[in-house]
Amino acid sequence: MLSLKFFTIFVFLLSLSSSLFTFTSAADPTYVSHDCSDKNFTRNSTYQSNMNNLLSSFPPNASRSDGFYKATEGQDPNKVYGLFQCRGDVTTTTCQDCVDFASTDATQRCPDQKGNIIWYDECLLHYSDSSIIYTSGLNNGPLMPDETEVTVEPNRFQQLLLELMHEAATQAANDPKRFATRKGNSTTSQPLYGLVQCTQDLSNTDCSRCLQESIANLWSTRIGGRS
């Protein structure tokens, strides 16, 4: 079953790492994960037609400067809801490439399902037969911690990590693109980087709440992770 909280926290990408966030251009975006709906549609149905029309409208709108687009297609009971959002620091070209790829990849991974949330490093795409809204208190999404444990001053690392991520969350909640990155130092020679993002349709209050809940679930004893 699709979890709206999972979508909000994970795709809206709350990440930390002991190395710089570097992403190289590639023919295809970097796949992370996806989550198919537990409801199926009938082939060649009105719902499938609406879904295809909605997804085909996404790539032309990926040139928007804010990298975010939300739309619906059709009428109840065959109405389809959808959105995409690109990471706040990618170029318009990278955003377009990711959304174009995701619009096809999503239905290949969930060929008969009414909805899918699919994440890449560069963007996310979500479509569903129900309205896409933020719901606090649901935490069904997986955590993706790095396997490497912090061995040098772990208590100091944990303190600095939480301070860094809370600062980033506050900044993102007050940013029009709901996006922020922060840099700190876990040791004298080891920098620490954090990145957070909410979908732009969230209020600053809901964005802040979502990110704070996600921060609370981080594996703060690992050198990196995603929640």
TrEMBL record:
Coiled-coil segments on the chain, per record: none
The UniProt keywords, alphabetically, are: Repeat, Signal
Q: Where do the Gnk2-homologous domain residues begin and end?
A: 29-132, 138-227
- PROSITE patterns this protein is in? GNK2
The residues the entry assigns to the signal sequence are 1-26
Q: Which domain of life is it from?
A: Eukaryota
One protein family per Pfam: Stress-antifung
Q: Entry's InterPro entries? A: GNK2, GNK2_sf
What's the protein called, per UniProt?
Gnk2-homologous domain-containing protein
From which source organism is this entry?
Acer yangbiense
What taxonomic lineage is listed for the species of origin? Answer: Eukaryota, Viridiplantae, Streptophyta, Embryophyta, Tracheophyta
